[in-house]
């Protein structure tokens, strides 16, 4: 926690009350203007601790009005009410008045960004521009002067447009970047234009006047009006990101304008800001476009011009502010992102901006209010200094310079010292449980304690021991060990006595640097230097000796900027190091240097795990984390400590850092992480837990406690117990060491050593603490042993029952619950995704809001149950209004809410009327009926549309006519039944039968009709009713002997066909028999079917008789009847007579015989397709093929032959296809050849080829194709096996002779082209063959000769 040391300025006695303050932009020099009604005005300069600079005093008999520092030089511009402008140089005090230009009160003083120009303006509207050289000396008279006739109120310079970054280009050029080198003057010719650096400063400025006008003065001094607003201009802002000029008037009217290249302005927006306007409003702006105003109200108002958003910041009385306290002034520090505001009660409120990139809350949540700093008087002006730790506060009577300082605190050997105020210390000795407060007569900047018996409290500027010894010292850091005090100076560490005598010097070389960090642990001192070297010294001897050589961390650590903190363990063999990066930001890594192994490793809190390690020996296995947790990621270490007695134990305090990739919801801001660090096992995560609420910062680790500082100055440093607290507070050292060893071995997984270390422990509290360790390490096997030694049977049983859970985390969570570790159980349930168990946990622990949220987002299957349980809980605690809401959400409000509100009838009635739910209306009506309020009950029954209850109540009240109307209108069956009962009790039979019928209570209506002889209605009711009622009515008619047709019909409708037929035969009701027979099927009684079929045969209805015979499974009789009566067998009838293979009614032979008989009958009737089907089902494919051949369906014949795959069928199909016109259909010819081939009928195939050859000869005279066909025929015939060898040989000889003749004729025709004479001779010889025809038709041969002689002109030969 930071405090502010206040330094009152050492003002001269002649000075009056301060009116203005101004810090130099780069130097810690403060200018203060004061006014005295008697002596006039004074200007004085002060240093950062309020020291007055006597040489820089300026006084005048009139009042100063404006102060403005040069941006870089120690040069102050002063404006007076008489129009005088003076330049004051620090520290010489040289005063340079400007030539007289103004005659009115100076209102404007403004330097350009680099200080080469100075603007002055007065109350009369005169503006002058002055030029100043690089040394800060005025260059003659003004270079520009304008008279605007109205008072000038504000002025700003417009920033210069960005040019090339020369520094970056220079670094790139040095690094060898050719393009960067080419940008400078020594570039190669022709590579581009020369370097354009842009102007060094912007010389264009804008000036505002009291009449609301803004003028622009360009770099040449020309002035032009830009814009005009209503009211006097109080502030001008230029937003560089958007290149927008913002104007604020005294009436707090904000306008934004875009500026054109030619000076024109276009209005973007105009809005009236909240707050009190006038000169009292203090307005500041930030580079990010944030406008902050203090207008003498109880809030600070902020406007975000970039996001077009606004909000307020208010004071918090719990932090020490008073009610009604108002804020007068504001000042914002951009670098530290701190907003300071002064109040009228002498307090300075500080808001620190908190980075929350993932927050979805209001922007106000980004500002955190700090504890106020109190000064005297009414704070009227605040200003941050060039040094970020300086803040000047003007309290009307004086000016205070506040210097920020981090509160000092130290813990050593059971003694803690914490700085409470700049000059007050709180000292606590824990071994004696004593506490005392020490006050110093100076500001304390550091504190260090040692030894319980003789504590030394050592401020940096004054060291104090019990003997009250003191001495002067310039050291910025210090450390204490025994009676030695260690301070630093350049290149060495001084070892002093309590009186300040230097007894030893620990020297550092120039390369090792200057010592800047000191830390002592037991007998070892670790020193860190400004060149990132560390060195450990052994203090256990009379003189300090180097424990190791200086180690340079720059070579081992990438991007290292400077050391931030160094600590060593109790053995001096491990050093922990915090560093900052080159850019000044804290490093996310915690480094560990092993002195003996000379290796460096680290743990990266940004990733939450260690890397392979960084060491000179490449020892990659030493830095190990047993269970890296995601909660350790996205963090940065801020402090670290070693246990003073246990060298293995290390603790680190980490804070959450901003990251757009991580969701920071449900993550703690500050996490305390404990490690074991050893040479053998490296870095081992032992435990982590959130910093306890209400505590401030980690101070030390001393098992079994963590020590934290408390923000309450009235309390001593608060204690937070370590990972093994229970039972260790007052135990002896042996038990404590055993516990630490157990924890260590448990962490590394060495269970044998872990159990050995605790085998002698008897304390149940210690065993409980070890069970808690098992939760952290998730070792349930060890936990069972611990629970057994604790005697905690309930926890052991719960752990045993939890073994059914598949997730390890869920089982560990059960253990955590039994040990009271609720936060750990919650995290475990979340980590394994068991939101159902997490929901139950929240309910059991009374965290109902979290339970509801969990059910709504992750456990929706139990959402209604959660709502219901929460409602029951709310009802139990008396919050019925909220219970009602959650009963509704759980959809149990229809019965739970009336039950809950039963004692409050008025509230219940209001709820009933509000909900308009039918079920609730019905419940309320029943309640009113129970209270005998029948009229209201009827109304709510009507709202609920409960017609039964309406009829019931009306009948009770005797309004049976009204009840009848309701029953008839609604048709409600229950209401009709109740009304029918009422009419029956009153012996109104017709009405009763009517309403029984409407209620569909037909048995009651039938009963009344039978009892009262209503036979006509009885028939209709029986037909509407069920079969039992039909049977009862049919029996009634049969017994009565009248209306037998009705009896038959009712028996028939009831499904009792035998009884219906019996009665129909007995009464000869043939029409009824016809209807009954239509409903008979194979499930009916066979005897009944046979009887009916005989009846239909007698009456000539053979089709119906056949159907009944088939249904009776008398297939042969049905088939014979079809033959006798010439009945056409349809496909449906044939199918009904076909018995399936699975049927047990007929054997397989009988089934096939029946199918063949059916097929034979179909053949007689000409139904060849159906016959084919039945023959096929009977397995007789030959008969099926014959039937199909008779049908002449070529396509089916081809298909059937293809699927049958029988030789005979192939031949039959081929023979059939030869009877077709195969000459015109190549597909038929192809099938013929295929079928003969598949049927192995090669002789028939040969005959077919001969027929094909003869067709080619007779029809087309194509002897070439005929020769090919004959050749194929010969091949087939040669493979065929004839019945008679002689006959076969004769046929082959005949076919061969025919082939020879055809071949000779073809040869003659082919030879004609080459040798016509030889061709003619061959043809003539062919004609001499005795049996030439039909192999070669004689006409074709003579035609060949005639054609030849005609071509030769031998017509005489042709005619012969």
Structural features, described:
- By secondary structure, this protein is α+β, with helices and mostly antiparallel strands.
- The protein contains 43 helices and 57 strands.
- The strands form 14 sheets. Strands 26, 27, 28, 29 and 30 form a 5-stranded antiparallel β-sheet that branches. Strands 42, 43, 44, 45 and 46 form a 5-stranded antiparallel β-sheet that branches. Strands 1-33-32-31 form a 4-stranded antiparallel β-sheet, with no helix packed on it.
- Strand 24 and strand 25 (309-314) form a beta hairpin.
- The protein starts with a strand and ends with a helix.
Notable traits:
single chain, 1360 residues, alpha+beta, five-stranded antiparallel beta sheet, 43 helices, TPR_IF140/IFT172/WDR19, Beta-prop_IFT140_2nd, WD repeat, cell projection
């Amino acid at each position: 926690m930071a405090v502010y040391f206040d330094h009152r300025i050492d003002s001269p006695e002649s000075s009056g009350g301060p009116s203005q303050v101004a810090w130099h932009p780069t130097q810690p020099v403060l200018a203060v203007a004061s006014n005295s009604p008697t002596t006039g005005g004074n200007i004085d300069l002060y240093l950062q601790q309020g020291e007055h600079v006597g040489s820089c005093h300026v006084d005048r008999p009139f009042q100063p009005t404006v102060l403005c520092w040069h941006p870089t030089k120690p040069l102050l511009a002063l404006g007076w009410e008489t129009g005088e402008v003076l330049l004051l140089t620090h520290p010489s005090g040289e005063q340079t008045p400007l030539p007289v230009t103004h005659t009115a009160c100076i209102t404007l003083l403004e330097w350009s960004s680099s200080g080469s120009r100075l603007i002055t303006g007065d109350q009369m509207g005169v503006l002058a521009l002055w030029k100043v050289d690089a040394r800060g000396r005025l260059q003659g008279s003004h270079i520009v002067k304008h008279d605007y006739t109205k008072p000038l109120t504000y002025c700003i310079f417009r920033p210069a447009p960005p040019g090339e970054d020369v520094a970056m280009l220079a670094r790139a050029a040095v690094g060898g970047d050719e393009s960067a080198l080419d940008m400078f003057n020594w570039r190669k010719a022709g590579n581009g234009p020369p370097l354009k650096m842009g102007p060094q400063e912007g010389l264009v400025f804008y000036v505002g006047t009291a009449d609301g006008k803004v003028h622009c003065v360009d770099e040449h001094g020309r002035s032009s009006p830009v814009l005009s607003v209503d009211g006097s201009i109080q502030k001008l802002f230029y937003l560089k990101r958007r290149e927008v000029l913002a104007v604020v008037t005294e009436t707090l009217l904000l306008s934004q304008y875009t500026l054109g290249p030619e000076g024109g302005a276009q209005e973007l927006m105009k809005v009236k800001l909240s707050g009190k306007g006038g000169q009292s409003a203090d307005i500041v702006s930030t580079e990010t476009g944030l406008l902050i105003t203090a207008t003498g109200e109880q809030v600070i108002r902020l406007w975000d011009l970039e996001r077009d958003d606004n909000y307020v910041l208010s004071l918090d009385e719990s932090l020490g502010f008073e009610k009604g306290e108002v804020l007068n002034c504001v000042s914002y520090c951009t670098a530290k992102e701190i907003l300071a505001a002064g109040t009228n009660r002498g307090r300075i409120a500080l808001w620190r901006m908190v980075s929350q990139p993932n927050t979805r809350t209001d922007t106000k949540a980004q500002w955190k209010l700090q504890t106020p700093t109190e000064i005297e008087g009414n704070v009227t002006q605040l200003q941050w200094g060039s040094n970020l730790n300086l803040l000047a506060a003007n309290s009307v009577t004086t000016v205070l310079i506040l210097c920020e300082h981090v509160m000092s605190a130290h813990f050593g050997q059971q003694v803690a010292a914490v700085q409470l105020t700049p000059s007050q210390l709180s000292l606590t000795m824990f071994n004696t449980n004593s506490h005392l407060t020490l006050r110093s007569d100076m500001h304390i900047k550091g504190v260090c304690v040692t030894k319980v018996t003789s504590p030394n409290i050592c401020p940096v500027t004054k060291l104090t021991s019990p003997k009250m010894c003191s001495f002067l010292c310039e050291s910025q850091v210090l450390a204490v060990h025994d009676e030695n005090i260690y301070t630093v100076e350049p290149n060495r560490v001084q070892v002093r006595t309590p009186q300040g005598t230097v007894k030893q010097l620990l020297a550092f070389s120039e390369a090792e640097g200057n010592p800047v960090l000191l830390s002592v642990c037991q007998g070892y001192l670790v020193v860190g230097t400004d060149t990132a070297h560390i060195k450990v010294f052994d203090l256990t001897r009379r003189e300090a000796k180097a424990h190791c050589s200086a180690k340079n961390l720059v070579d081992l650590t990438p991007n290292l900027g400077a050391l931030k903190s160094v600590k060593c363990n109790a053995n001096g063999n491990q050093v922990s190091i915090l560093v900052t990066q080159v850019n000044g930001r804290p490093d996310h890594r915690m480094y560990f240097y092993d002195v003996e192994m000379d290796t460096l490793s680290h743990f990266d809190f940004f990733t939450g795990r260690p890397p392979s390690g960084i060491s000179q020996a490449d020892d990659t296995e030493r830095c190990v984390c047993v269970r890296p947790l995601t909660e350790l990621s996205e963090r940065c270490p801020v402090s670290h400590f070693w246990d003073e007695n246990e060298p293995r134990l290390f603790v680190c305090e980490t804070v959450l850092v901003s990251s757009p990739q991580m969701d920071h919801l449900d993550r703690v801001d500050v996490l305390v992480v404990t490690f074991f660090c050893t040479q053998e096992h490296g870095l081992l995560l032992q435990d982590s837990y959130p910093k306890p609420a209400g505590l401030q910062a980690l101070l030390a680790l001393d098992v079994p406690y963590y020590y934290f500082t408390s923000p309450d100055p009235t309390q001593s440093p608060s204690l937070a117990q370590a990972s093994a607290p229970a039972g260790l507070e007052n135990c002896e050292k042996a038990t404590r060491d055993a516990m630490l060893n157990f924890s260590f071995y448990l962490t590394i997984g060495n269970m044998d050593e872990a159990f050995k270390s605790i085998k002698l422990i008897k304390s149940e509290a210690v065993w409980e603490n070890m069970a808690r360790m098992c939760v952290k390490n998730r070792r349930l096997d060890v936990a069972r042993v611990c629970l057994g030694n604790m005697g905690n049977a309930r926890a052991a049983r719960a752990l045993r029952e939890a073994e059914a859970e598949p997730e390890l985390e869920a089982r560990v969570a059960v253990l955590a619950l039994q040990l009271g570790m609720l936060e750990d159980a919650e995290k475990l349930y979340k980590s394994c995704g068991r939101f159902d168990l997490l929901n139950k946990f929240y309910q059991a622990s009374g965290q109902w809001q979290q339970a509801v949220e969990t059910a709504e987002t992750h456990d929706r299957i139990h959402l209604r149950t959660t709502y219901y349980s929460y409602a029951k809980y709310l009802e139990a605690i008396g919050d019925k209004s909220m219970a009602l809401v959650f009963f509704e959400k759980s959809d149990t409000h229809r019965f739970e809410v009336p039950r809950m509100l039963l004692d409050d009838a008025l509230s219940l009635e209001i709820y009933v009327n509000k909900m308009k739910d039918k079920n609730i209306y019905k419940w309320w009506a029943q309640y009113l009926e129970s209270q005998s309020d029948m009229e209201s009950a009827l109304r709510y029954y009507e709202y609920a549309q409960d017609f039964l209850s309406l009829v019931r109540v009306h009948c009770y009240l005797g309004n049976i006519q009204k009840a009848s109307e309701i029953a008839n209108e609604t048709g409600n069956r229950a209401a009709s039944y109740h009304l029918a009962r009422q009419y029956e009790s009153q012996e109104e039979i017709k009405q009763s039968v009517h309403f029984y019928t409407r209620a569909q209570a037909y048995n009651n209506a039938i009963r009344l009709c039978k009892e009262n002889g209503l036979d006509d209605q009885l028939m209709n009711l029986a037909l509407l009713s069920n079969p039992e009622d039909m049977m009862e009515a049919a029996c009634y008619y049969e017994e009565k002997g009248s209306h037998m047709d009705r009896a038959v019909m009712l028996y028939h409708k009831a499904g009792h066909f035998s009884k219906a037929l019996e009665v129909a035969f007995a009464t000869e009701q043939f029409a009824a028999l016809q209807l009954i027979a239509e409903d008979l099927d194979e499930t009916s009684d066979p005897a009944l079917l046979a009887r009916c079929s005989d009846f239909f045969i007698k009456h000539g209805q053979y089709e119906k008789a056949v159907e009944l015979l088939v249904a009776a499974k008398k297939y042969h009789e049905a088939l014979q009847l079809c033959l006798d009566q010439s009945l056409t067998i349809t496909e449906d009838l044939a199918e009904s007579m076909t018995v399936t293979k699975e049927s047990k009614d007929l054997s397989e032979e009988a089934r096939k015989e029946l199918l063949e008989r059916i097929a034979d009958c179909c053949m007689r009737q000409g139904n060849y397709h159906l016959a084919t089907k039945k023959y096929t089902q009977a397995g007789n494919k030959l008969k099926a093929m014959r039937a199909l051949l008779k049908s002449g369906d070529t396509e089916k014949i081809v298909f059937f032959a293809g699927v049958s795959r029988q030789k005979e069928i192939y031949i039959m199909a081929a023979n059939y296809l030869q009877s077709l016109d195969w000459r015109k259909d190549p597909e038929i010819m192809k099938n013929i050849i295929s079928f003969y081939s598949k049927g192995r009928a090669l002789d028939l195939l040969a005959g077919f080829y001969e027929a094909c050859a003869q067709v080619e000869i007779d029809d087309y005279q194509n002897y070439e194709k005929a020769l090919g066909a004959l050749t194929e025929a010969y091949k087939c015939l040669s493979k065929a096996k004839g019945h008679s060898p002689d006959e076969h040989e004769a046929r082959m000889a005949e076919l061969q002779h025919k082939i020879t003749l055809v071949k000779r004729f073809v040869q003659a025709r082919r030879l004609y082209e080459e040798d016509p004479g030889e061709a003619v001779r061959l043809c003539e010889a062919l004609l001499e063959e005795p049996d030439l025809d039909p192999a070669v038709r004689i006409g074709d041969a003579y035609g060949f000769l005639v054609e030849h002689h005609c071509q030769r002109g031998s017509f005489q030969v042709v005619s012969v």
